[in-house]
């Protein structure tokens, strides 16, 4: 009598025979796909929206560009990996996988954690700005410049071809519905900020022009915002919009409102070029 | 004459909406009393852009606080309160206004609208005081739903007790209404844990405090640290003072049962309540005119519209499609056209499907087919029959009539019971 027949989980004989016919076998683990991040990285990798083969250049997404610029300001050397939202654990780009020498996986960093990481690993000094005005001016970017940016890229039909090039896969099956989703998401986002039932184009552009004027006054004759001796996170944040709005490699429609209005603020345009030369 | 259309009064303040309150304060300080009047309006849908506050200046409509301020400034309709500000202060004015309309507006959404306790005890009764009869049921839930959507990303959904498991129907609630015999067989309500005893606001206290602090400490630092001068830019009342008053007064003065903002402000930033009280004390003798009466037809139409908007996504999508794409005008946009076409196609498909379904047999019934005898003659009764048959000739019998009705077809008995 086999020893296990008395245990209460005794397997009936026919089933046992069946399992003997098909013995359990554990296969060796599959290789991860070649695109998967390696467990060991000599350098941290930043996942951003970027056109393929264009990794050294600024990303075309403001939020990605902000962190990309900030890491460059801090002198943290990162590998840029073109990616999309589906790759991100939080559903939004960018995220940073810190460098690691052992195979223990480290959690991906987003938002404020990237800032902390950059400050800890900075090779250049980053000025710390203790000012309540900083918070107010950051709200200004979120509240006044971002909606105009969203409108001009996602909703304005004359920039549809640019949007298609940047965010929409070439497959015609996906293109229409994805475009629709993006437009709806952008509209919701704008309306959340303006708290009106309509998107009013003229108002959005007027607000962004007011915001640019306020930023220009804030910058004054200084090289960097808040009179710092070197650029900081706020400079990167402003740069992420000013760079992209006037970026000629993006095929903006000719004479777009946002481009015209920003081009009028010479100090901001100079700041944009200064930070580009500093980082790239 | 400037006509200012605003939301109605609440909590002892001139309006329940922060921007309306702010623009009232602005015009109060900037314009002579005879030059403008306030019309409590309560239905934004009548103004062309569906948004309050709205200023009607001889038929020209302007909406929103900053836009109205710019409009009256541009047309020199009243004194410019910001004229003494330096260029840097002008820039700060713009930035701090953006800060208010971003952070303080979110905080207000959380306090007055998201928090279920505050909403049901304070905000909803305030709305029901000035909204006319049927829309009072349909409009406030819409306002709340929009506010809830705006603060979604803060992750404070538990303040809405609809999602709060401790407030759901529990066996221990209403025990006294059950008969004694039932009650004994029910499990005794367990003692509540500390966590269950806490209100959702207390559970989220750390995040709420963080939110409040981010928003309000900025303004407290702008106020001069001491002295009687309670103005954000030192000198006279500026447009930022008015906007800050609009938000802070509602945050501080609304008599909510869970006053986390008020508690925080009074403990940490006692200058802010002084600022609100000072601004409020100045805001007397306002040129209120009688509220505009809405016609019965208008109220009816508005009720219908808001009922659809209140309904499931389907109808709301239809109306929003009209609202979104257009700049001010309410004509039907491409989205709506697409939607209507889609709805028509879907209903046509469903109609066809229904028709087809009706023509099917009911499921589970046996189909019985029987054929009538082909040749009704007496010859089937053997030889005697055939003799008789030839003698009598073809006879138009009952069977024959029956046969002619259904000689080719089949009779299907749908009523037969299968048991």
The percentage helix of chain B is 40-55%
Number of H- or I-type helical stretches of chain B? 17
General form of chain B: elongated
Distance separating the two termini of chain A: 79 Å
Oligomeric state of the chains in view: heterodimer
Which regions of chain A contain 5 or more consecutive residues with pLDDT less than 50? Answer: none
CATH fold topology of the largest domain in chain B: Glutathione S-transferase Yfyf (Class Pi), Chain A, domain 2
User: Mind telling me which CATH architecture of the largest domain in chain B this is?
Assistant: Up-down Bundle
Biggest beta-sheet profile of chain A? 3 strands, mixed
Percent strand of chain A: under 5%
Commentary on this structure:
The complex is a heterodimer of chains A (280) and B (419). Chain A is globular and about 85 Å long. In chain A, α2 links the parallel β1 and β2. With 280 residues, chain A is mainly alpha-helical. Chain A folds into two domains: 76 residues, 3-Layer(aba) Sandwich (Glutaredoxin), CATH 3.40.30; 148 residues. Chain B is mainly alpha-helical. Chain B folds into three domains: 264 residues, Glutathione S-transferase Yfyf (Class Pi), Chain A, domain 2 (Up-down Bundle), CATH 1.20.1050; 48 residues; 56 residues, no CATH class. Chain B has 17 helices and four strands. Chain B has a four-stranded mixed β-sheet, covered by helices on one side. In chain B, α1 links the parallel β1 and β2. In chain B, α3 runs antiparallel to α9. About 8% of the residues of chain B have low confidence. Classes of the chains: A mainly alpha (280), B mainly alpha (419). Chains A and B meet through α4, α6 and α7 of A and α3 and α9 of B.
Keywords:
heterodimer; A: 280 residues; 2 domains; 3-stranded mixed β-sheet; B: 419 residues; Glutathione S-transferase Yfyf (Class Pi), Chain A, domain 2; elongated; Mito_Protein_Transport_Metaxin (chain A); Thioredoxin-like_fold (chain A); Metaxin_GST (chain A); Thioredoxin-like fold domain-containing protein (chain A); mitochondrion (chain B)
